[in-house]
């Protein structure tokens, strides 16, 4: 990683990164998937590959705050179904990063996000809503969990963009707002922490990047508090629309860069 660029961030650049960190906190406690905008900001201010290493600890800080806020609402059967597939996706994403350049990564992730958004909208218009996230107990539910899990692990490893993929899965599985946030909080805390050795091994995290993270993590806290305040003022239908809209925006940003 070209760590010198991390020490030559302009004032405006740092302000943009601080806003992106605040948005990470908001997305973790209110509208999951909105942090795709943060991903785009980090990639614009910092070198694309280096940005993924700087963003990861900021995301982990947001995950910790989300777990503290929604820990009682996690649905663990869904998490246990997802983790093996996600692990396979993380390994695949690591291998992909060894040879893929930034353009290939952005195009691949953007296309996946838009495809998943389209599939989710179509499924929610053609299927009846369910009150409990019990679809994982069926054969079709297990197959869906595995496919989304692999995609989520892959996208979170190569671009920290697993949020929209898993958000779409949780929506399609019928999760309500608090169950959605509690389950995704534990999911991403565990997955993002497990990515640290891979990212360090690829040279995406080092002492200098962590010092920049220490300055940015401060801005995650007010974002998380704002999200906690806002989530109780957003009804379920608007919540789902915001998640899908954030996914589409993130996918388009990646494709059009």
Architecture overview:
There is one protein chain. This protein has 257 residues and is mainly alpha-helical. 79% of the residues lie in helices and 0% in strands. The protein is built from 11 helices and no strands. 49% of the residues are buried.
The dominant shape is globular
Name the average pLDDT.
Answer: 80
Q: CA-to-CA gap between the ends?
A: 21 Å
What portion of residues belong to β-strands?
Answer: under 5%
Give helix and strand order, one letter per element, not per position.
Answer: HHHHHHHHHHH
Task: List how many beta strands DSSP finds.
Answer: 0
Q: What gyration radius follows from the Cα positions, in whole Å?
A: 17 Å
Q: Could you estimate the helical fraction of the residues in percent? A: over 70%
Low-confidence stretches: 1-5
Number of helices: 11
Main beta-sheet annotation = none
**Secondary structure category:** mainly alpha
List keywords for this structure.
257 residues; mainly alpha; disordered N terminus
């Amino acid at each position: 990683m070209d760590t010198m660029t991390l020490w030559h961030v302009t004032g405006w650049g740092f302000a943009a990164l601080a806003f992106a960190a605040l948005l990470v906190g908001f997305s973790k406690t209110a509208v999951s998937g909105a942090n795709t905008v943060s991903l785009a900001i980090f990639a614009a201010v910092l070198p694309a590959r280096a940005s993924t290493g700087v963003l990861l600890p900021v995301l982990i800080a947001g995950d910790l705050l989300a777990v503290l806020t929604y820990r009682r609402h996690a649905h663990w059967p869904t998490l246990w179904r997802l983790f093996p597939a996600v692990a396979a996706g993380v390994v695949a994403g690591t291998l992909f990063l060894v040879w893929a350049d930034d353009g290939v990564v952005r195009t691949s992730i953007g296309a996946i996000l838009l495809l998943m958004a389209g599939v989710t909208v179509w499924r929610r218009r053609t299927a009846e809503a369910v009150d409990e996230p019990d679809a994982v107990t069926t054969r079709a539910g297990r197959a869906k969990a595995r496919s989304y899990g692999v995609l989520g692990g892959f996208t979170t490893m190569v671009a920290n963009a697993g949020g929209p993929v898993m958000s779409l899965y949780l929506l399609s599985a019928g999760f309500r707002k608090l169950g959605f946030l509690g389950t995704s909080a534990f999911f991403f805390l565990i997955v993002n922490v497990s990515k640290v050795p891979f990212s360090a091994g690829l040279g995406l995290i080092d002492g200098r990047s962590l010092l920049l993270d220490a300055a940015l993590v401060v801005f995650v806290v007010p974002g998380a508090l704002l999200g906690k305040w806002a989530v109780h003022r957003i009804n379920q239908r608007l919540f789902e629309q915001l998640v899908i809209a954030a996914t589409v925006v993130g996918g388009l940003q990646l494709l059009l860069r």
